[in-house]
Specification:
The chain has about 300 residues and is an alpha/beta fold. It folds into 2 domains: about 1-175, P-loop containing nucleotide triphosphate hydrolases (Rossmann fold); about 175-290, no CATH class. It has helices spanning about 25-35, 50-55, 80-90, 105-115, 130-135, 140-145, 155-165, 220-225, 230-250, 270-285, and strands at about 1-5, 15-20, 40, 65-70, 95-100, 145-150, 175-185, 195-200, 255-265, 285-290. The strands form 2 sheets. A 6-stranded mixed beta sheet has the order 1-6-5-2-4-3. Strands 8-9-7-10 form a 4-stranded parallel beta sheet, with helices on one face.
Length: about 300
């Protein structure tokens, strides 16, 4: 990755990333990465409409703080309108970065041939001269970019890592989401789970008369589950494991983790443990979702 200049900074709290560059250089993969990081993404955005977009969303109730635009030759009069679009961001005092993706002519030609896509400028399978003409048309925009990424020899995972490094470090941990779920083994293991933990090593509140008809949402059930030393050791070790793995997941371009806690019926131990970890992760400043899949099943 080539860093060509400092990122533009404005007074607005909104953050904007503009993904542009050569057709076939990986812009679709880039927009997928930004969506995973919590950006509101718009593909094929005509630059001249940037001003109109921010006039629509400047109302704080809309709640859009991070936006990504993919802008390229599909947008019509692209090179002419790009400067006008960037000037609109400056006028609104919006912080933005321009990331330019490119690849060698031979690689781009091969990618178009493999995917059987037409070139956005000619609407036909591209000739080498079409790729060369596009590169020439984008020269000034490339000069405006904050980062230039050559994807010629990159796999999708490598491109994601380059994009992560180009974006502001302070947003990385904030965009990682941990999805916590409880479930009952007798209803099946959740197919979406990345990590599944069996809570049946914990003494079962079901066999305590005063707790049998309650769930892990009850303070008494949760207290019973958490009072055991083996439970406390498990919580400590898993918390350490997850926090150590999050940076590794992010380096691989993954921005969510699905953790499932199971017990026999999904009523007591799994619910209590899911609640425990959801609250713990939230205290640590992480984004968390919580679902008790089988709690209503009896």
């Amino acid at each position: 990755m080539e860093k060509t200049s400092g990122a533009k900074r404005g007074k607005s709290k909104m953050e904007v990333v503009i993904i542009t560059g050569m057709s076939g250089a990986g812009k679709s993969q880039a927009i997928d990465c930004l969506e995973d990081r919590g950006y509101y993404c718009i593909d094929n955005m005509p630059p001249v409409l940037i001003k109109n977009f921010f006039e629509l969303v400047r109302d704080k109730s809309v709640g859009i703080e991070k936006t990504a635009f993919v802008m390229d030759m599909r947008g019509g009069a692209f090179a002419e309108g790009f400067e006008e679009g960037v000037e609109a961001l400056d006028a609104y005092g919006i912080a933005y970065k321009i990331i330019f993706l490119e690849a060698s002519n031979d690689v781009l030609a091969r990618r178009f041939n493999e995917t059987r896509r037409v070139h956005p400028a000619t609407k036909k399978p591209p000739l080498m001269k079409d790729i060369q003409n596009e590169r020439k048309a984008l020269e000034k925009i490339r000069e405006r970019a904050d980062f230039v990424i050559d994807t010629s020899a990159m796999k999708p995972k490598q491109l994601k890592q380059e994009l992560i490094e180009a974006l502001t470090d302070e947003y990385q941990e904030e965009t990682f989401v941990i999805n916590v779920m409880s479930f009952g083994y007798k209803y099946g293991i959740p197919v979406s789970a990345d990590m599944v933990f069996d809570m049946r090593f914990i003494p079962n509140p079901f066999y305590v008369a005063s707790l049998k008809r309650s769930t892990g949402n009850s303070k008494k059930v949760r207290s019973y589950v958490m009072k055991h030393l083996v439970t406390q050791m498990f919580v400590k070790d898993l918390n350490s494991l997850v926090n150590n793995l999050i940076p590794a997941y992010m380096r691989e371009g993954k921005f969510n983790l699905n953790i499932a806690f199971g017990c026999t019926g999904g009523q007591h131990r799994s619910v209590a443990m899911a609640n425990e970890f959801a609250e713990m992760f939230e205290r640590q400043g992480k984004q968390v979702t919580l679902e008790h899949r089988d709690i209503k099943k009896r």
